[in-house]
Amino acid sequence: MREGRFGTLTETTAPDVMSQLTPQMLFDALAIQIDDPKAWDENLSIDIIHTDTDTDARFRLRLANGVLTYSAAASSGDADATITTTRRALPALALGLAPEQLAATGIQLSGDVSVLAQLTDALDPGDKNVAIVTP
């Protein structure tokens, strides 16, 4: 440590880490990566339906005013896009894959799939080599 920065010892986007996140944790992880000024004018919504739970869990993601929020409460109106997936395949969304690549993982997309690109473009994952502690 006396010879300068050596980076972060872990990779937080590693598949084994991502696969252990609950949907809510994954949505929070995406929300903190939103580049607020870049996403300020975006207004989109995405319904996410999990097919491998007892009650078919459903979430609505909404990006507006540079903030990504989510809710499990019933939402009025139609979302711009709907994603139907299993809980295990959901972390593929955080990778910024194209719709064709998401479909290959078993994720079904319907509606305006261009909103996924808008969401991905609004993400700024930050510098993974940031010095967390500085002298």
Strand content: 15-25%
Question: How does the major sheet shape up?
Answer: 5 strands, mixed
Note the run of SSEs as H and E. Answer: HHHEEEEHEH
Structural class, from helix and strand content? Answer: alpha+beta
Q: How many beta-strand segments?
A: 5
Coarse shape? globular
Helix run count: 5
Poorly predicted sequence stretches spanning 5 or more consecutive residues: none
Kindly report how far apart the N and C termini lie.
10 Å
Mean pLDDT metric: 84
The value of Rg in angstroms is 16 Å
Features:
135 residues, alpha+beta, five-stranded mixed beta sheet, 5 helices, 21% strand, globular
Q: Can you give a write-up of this model?
A:
- With 135 residues, the chain is an alpha+beta fold.
- Helix content is 24%, strand content 21%.
- The chain has five helices and five strands; from the N terminus they run H-H-H-E-E-E-E-H-E-H.
- A hairpin with a 2-residue loop joins strand 2 (58-64) and strand 3.
- It starts with 14 loop residues before the first helix and ends in a 13-residue tail after the last helix.
- The mean pLDDT is 84.
